[in-house]
Design a protein that fits this description.
Layout lengths: L7 E5 L7 H10 L2 E4 H7 L2 H4 L7 E7 L21 H14 L1 E8 L10 H18 L3
Helix pairs in contact: 4-5
């Protein structure tokens, strides 16, 4: 789509279904990949530096990006994901740096949830996203 300048994918930690050609094509288009390992080592600035100041952004929060210790209700649990604190730091940072034009939360899989932990975490993240949007100028 012509109005999409690129993507920054944050929290990756496994190969998934992408083929090498898919990754290379996305990078040529301007997409950036920031692994969970980079976030753990460098902090959220490792991701936020790829967002141009004042850019209009749409945030898609994939529940698979969080560590399964706090988000077990996903289809493919993979250790080493982002923490709750890291994700709310990302959301707040986006709200300060960019103009959030839209948000959504995807890949929550309730049948795999444990004691409602994923539902609670997802709800709190949605509240944080709404708060970041409301606080924008």
């Amino acid at each position: 789509m012509p109005h999409v300048a690129g993507m920054v994918q944050v929290g990756l930690r496994s190969v998934g279904s992408a083929r090498l050609a898919d990754i290379e094509a996305a990078q040529l288009y301007g997409s950036r990949f920031v692994t969970a390992r980079e976030i753990h080592a460098q902090g959220m600035d490792a991701a936020l530096r790829h967002i141009p100041e004042g850019a209009r952004v749409v945030v898609t929060l994939d529940c698979d990006s969080l560590d399964p210790g706090i988000m077990p209700g996903v289809a493919a649990r993979t250790p080493g994901g982002l923490t709750y604190t890291q994700v709310i730091e990302l959301i707040a940072g986006l709200g300060r740096r960019a103009k959030i034009a839209g948000v959504d939360l995807v890949e929550l899989y309730p049948p795999a949830d444990i004691d409602g932990l994923s539902a609670l975490t997802a709800a709190r993240l949605v509240v944080n996203m709404i708060g970041a949007v409301v606080r924008q100028d």
